[in-house]
Known about the structure:
Distance between the termini: 64 Å
Protein name: Ribosomal RNA small subunit methyltransferase A
Structural class: alpha/beta
Catalytic activity: adenosine(1518)/adenosine(1519) in 16S rRNA + 4 S-adenosyl-L-methionine = N(6)-dimethyladenosine(1518)/N(6)-dimethyladenosine(1519) in 16S rRNA + 4 S-adenosyl-L-homocysteine + 4 H(+)
Organism: Hoeflea algicola
GO molecular function, one term: 16S rRNA (adenine(1518)-N(6)/adenine(1519)-N(6))-dimethyltransferase activity
Bound molecules: S-adenosylmethionine
Amino acid sequence: MALAHDGLPALRDVVAAHGLAPKKALGQNFLFDLNLTAKIARSAGPLEGFTIFEIGPGPGGLTRALLAQGADRVVVIERDPRCLPILAAISEHYPGRLEVVEGDALKVDLAALADGAPAKVVANLPYNVGTQLLINWLTANPENPFWQSMTLMFQKEVGQRIIATPGSNHYGRLGVLAGWLTMADILFDVPPQAFTPPPKVTSSVVQLVPRTTRLPCELSKLEHVTQAAFGQRRKMLRQSLKPLGGEALLTKVGIDPARRAETLSLEEFCALANAL
Length: 276
Ligand code: SAM
């Protein structure tokens, strides 16, 4: 078997040797290009001294890049048991630096695993649960998040929703939540052909870092308002926010009841939440 520059076998050979046919139900679109996985790992910034969480390592392309670039503690969470022997071989190649957790990332408490140590999340997320995972990490403990940055691959459309600002078609609950808690950016796009098998759409690597100061507001109330407002995004706010006080609530905070959800700034959403 040909060896890659990290001294481990080429990813395509690893996958073939283990008969790891990609499963759609697990959102398995693998990256075999170690230059690309190295680019993603580099874009996460310094890795040494951090616990790096990677969700869905699969055959380990990104995992290998993170380790090759000096990460001294990588914790991966993988649901597919077929990947475990592959990950064990990577762990052997980098003794004491890779911990493999078998399980569903939706049920794993990353904050508990970080145990107060500085952490980053770097992952090519399974698309079927990517948004839910992000929401879990954003809302786990907004006062004191366990992560210092998250560098995550999503479908491009999800990336656009994360970074969306008022007036954009992509602006919705996710944009308000991410905008309230983080500074978020799309770092670069990745075309479908970079993956095996290729997905139908372009992907984007998004980076989120927590805001040091953010508008005072209670998470549950903010979610309440955005859920109602964007639940009927084509309607005027006087109608969509009726169950929360409608026109009276809007006038109290000086918002024209004839406006629609997608025109409201973060400040205005927080003002509404605070007035509930
Ligand atoms: N990181 C690899 C890469 O870039 O080639 C694989 C990325 S692939 C898009 C997503 C990975 O997440 C797959 O390995 C899949 O088995 C795993 N996965 C899917 N659902 C998961 C879940 N709920 N918890 C943990 N891993 C999951």
